[in-house]
Amino acid sequence: DTEVTQTPKHLVMGMTNKKSLKCEQHMGHRAMYWYKQKAKKPPELMFVYSYEKLSINESVPSRFSPECPNSSLLNLHLHALQPEDSALYLCASSQVTVGKLFFGSGTQLSVL
Amino acid sequence: GQQVMQIPQYQHVQEGEDFTTYCNSSTTLSNIQWYKQRPGGHPVFLIQLVKSGEVKKQKRLTFQFGEAKKNSSLHITATQTTDVGTYFCAGPFVSADKLIFGTGTRLQVFP
Lengths: 112, 111
Description:
The structure holds two protein chains of two kinds. By secondary structure, chain A is mostly beta strands. Chain A has strands at 4-7, 10-13, 18-25, 31-37, 44-50, 53-57, 64-70, 73-79, 87-94, 102-103, 107-111. The N and C termini of chain A lie far apart (36 Å). By secondary structure, chain B is mainly beta. Chain B is built from no helices and eleven strands. In chain B, strands 2, 4, 5, 9, 10 and 11 form a six-stranded mixed sheet that branches. A five-stranded antiparallel sheet of chain B has the order 1-3-8-7-6, with no helix packed on it. The N and C termini of chain B lie far apart (40 Å). At the A-B interface, strand 5 and strand 10 of A face strand 5, strand 9 and strand 10 of B.
């Protein structure tokens, strides 16, 4: 199984809502990532988990809260987002940090 | 700050023509990876180059890593409509533990 599964595929939320994005991989990868991608831009790193511990937070606002419940799962909790947070949110995993990335199909998020 | 630039930003080609995208880093990279993202899709890994001056081929695609490990190129011979998408290079700066993506080159192929 070489897939990274992300849910939901699409999400529309208001600025007062709380929602969560979910990501799962069963490749035994020990590094997992959240990226944010705006239209026609490259993926922008948000968080890195290595061996289930947060190793990198790219100065992401606290309205984004990552969680790694176990080595296969990665969540991104969203609260009080702004319209400018609308983007494609990509989860990825790799065997080692800075190794080959396997991306999920992403969650297209719209904040109204 | 440290960045990875790609040129051109956008290119139209006629099917059958060749295409090249160039990737330039402000800092030495430990390795270089290339990804392809189809319209509406997610990035998909193509290849990784590690050694200075390395050249690798995948069918019609040729990848090079510069001698100084600060630049790379992807060349597609005889493009096909299936080559449409955005090509990103990505690499970790030496002693860094995160991948930085290049700005991307969007390729459009007309039949």
